[in-house]
């Protein structure tokens, strides 16, 4: 079973907040309502559009999602 988007995002947490995805990961960690078990783009996107005031732009989510998909594909081909 592949990991949820949240699990993937948590691998990018860093207290130094180096880039936008790291900032997103740090903020999502503190968001106790984040859909932690979801791997559904539309569910997470809709949640962030309504509740993700910590996300400067949805482009950041889209970039993180693309990285997530790349990782999931790599895991499936192993």
Write a structural description.
The chain has 78 residues and is mostly helical. The protein has a single domain, classed as DNA polymerase, domain 1, CATH 1.10.150.260. It contains 4 helices and no strands. It has helices spanning 5-10, 20-30, 41-51, 58-76. The longest helix is centred in the last third of the chain and has 19 residues, at 58-76. The mean pLDDT is 93.
Describe the structure concisely.
The protein has 78 residues and is mostly helical.
Explain the layout of strands and helices.
Layout: H1 5-10, H2 20-30, H3 41-51, H4 58-76
- The assigned CATH architecture is Orthogonal Bundle
In terms of structural class, how would the helical and strand content be classed?
mainly alpha
DSSP strand count:
0
Mean pLDDT: 93
Query: How large is the share of residues in beta strands?
Result: under 5%
> Can you identify the CATH class?
Mainly Alpha
What does the main sheet amount to?
none
Question: Rounded to an integer, what's the Rg over CA atoms?
Answer: 12 Å
End-to-end Cα distance, whole Å, is 13 Å
* CATH fold-level name: DNA polymerase, domain 1
The residue fraction in helices comes out at: 55-70%
Number of domains: 1
**Unreliable runs:** none
CATH superfamily: YozE SAM-like
Shape designation: globular
Task: Count up the helices.
Answer: 4
The ordered string of helix (H) and strand (E) elements is HHHH
Family: Belongs to the UPF0346 family.
Pfam families: YozE_SAM_like
Protein name: UPF0346 protein J2S08_001921
Organism: Bacillus chungangensis
């Amino acid at each position: 079973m592949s990991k949820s988007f949240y699990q993937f995002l948590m691998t990018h947490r860093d207290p130094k907040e180096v880039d936008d995805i790291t900032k997103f990961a740090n903020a999502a960690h503190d968001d106790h309502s984040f859909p932690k078990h979801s791997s559904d783009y539309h569910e997470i996107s809709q949640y962030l559009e309504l509740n993700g005031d910590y996300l400067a732009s949805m482009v950041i989510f889209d970039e993180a999602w693309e990285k997530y998909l790349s990782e999931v594909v790599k895991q499936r081909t192993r």
